[in-house]
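Entry 0007
Protein: glycine dehydrogenase (aminomethyl-transferring)
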Amino acid sequence: MSMNSQGRPTTPHVPSASEVAQTHTGNRALMQEEPLLFELDNPGVCGVDLPEPPTAELRLGKVRPRGTLALPSVSEPEVVRHYTRLSQKNFGIDSTMYPLGSCTMKHNPRLNEKMARLPGFSDIHPLQPVSTVQGALELIDALAHWLKTLTGMPAVAMSPAAGAHGELCGLMAIRAALAARGEAHRRRVLVPESAHGTNPATAAFCGFAVDSIPAEDDGRVSVAAVKAKLGPDVAAIMLTNPNTCGLFEPQIREIADAVHAAGGYFYCDGANYNAIVGRVRPADLGVDAMHINLHKTFSTPHGGGGPGSGPVVLSAALAPFAPLPYVVHGEDGFRLVEHAGEAEGHPFGRMKGFHGQMGMFVRALAYMLSHGGDGLRQAASDAVLNANYVLASLKDVMSASFEGPCMHEALFDDRFLKGTGITPLDFAKALIDEGFHPMTMYFPLVVQGALLIEPTETESKQTLDQFIGTLRALAERAKTGDEEYFHGAPRLTPRRRLDETAAARKPVLRWTRPAPAAQAAAAQAAAE
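Output (structure tokens):
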């Protein structure tokens, strides 16, 4: 094994199966074998002393408890160690690069976290008197102002909780606007085949019929295909720009004009706004409604299902139908318009119980103010530069799906694996052993065996070079026909490759205590 000048190996040692399994405990130094919390159960042990609860009368009618909750009894040190060890097994943006395509998993500045944890923001309650939360309402109003400035749109709904919720908000505003025009018969929504899956799902949820538009050979939407679908029953088009193939739609203005001429509205999926923020104003593209994933474009990586926030900017045509509540500034300070009777326009209703995702609002505004307009523009430029660097550095060993430069995502397909017996899933599993989270696989669906990479603007050239070098090495190894290596990956993780199909079809959702050894032996003997 070769060594560098500091005496460190230049190539990692991959332990054999016998080396991995030789410890008595199953632990591998700092990578410790961790049982379930239920398996640590030690009846009678408790981390706190609590008084016996008083006997209470049941108030559930005829419903009676079927037994205890069977929660594990564990001491305080055991609980702390258990969750600390689990945290060490997590993959996070603070550990290494997170190249998921169409997700924008980038560094979350600690300044944002510091601001979000200020007591005046973190300790307030949505039912407090308005007079006691003036600062929070002012922050929401300021964030709304900058979102409108960046997008060129006259109105914004702040309450939607995430991207799909924002899509729902936009389509409900479109539905309300159509009804006000006396055109509720418009029930068809055009959706490109390359769209995020939530687009057609949201349209169907709102009661619209979904009419798909096929992708062109260059990965973009054709104006002619859109015009061929237009008619008096079209309510809207839902288009992502840049699209899910990581490409800008150059004919977007012509598409918007055609949809408007036919009496429809243009909904833009803003999931990829990170690629154009500060450089392009959606209003100038003819957009009527667009959700903005604050947790993508304005930091706070959203792995694990949250937190999220999806404000929706609206054109002048849709602004009167924006949902409640919204912030206004009067003589007595800031207040929330909560009821339709006091609202200007014709709000279609309410999206959620309270006023939005306060922690995300704080983080997003901190990100905006610390970057400034020029910093946001540079972030978008760097995101596109990094993606094109990845694309240009890999297209000789991996198969790029489309010719020419990309926007914020580099898209490859599985043609480079043809004849190797190795699938994109195998390839991604091998990447885990190298210390990287896999890229997005098999999406967008319009590309066979898609491998979608979004490096974001926050990764250094050194990190990108390491990532690129790793992918090149894996691609070259795959072409040698080393199926065994890829089919067995990952080998270095706490758990090896799982039977994902069985896990999805037969999930084990409840832990059951194993039978005692004697009972298990008796059962085995009886079975034999």
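Curator remark: The first strand starts at residue 155 and ends at 157. The mean pLDDT is 90.
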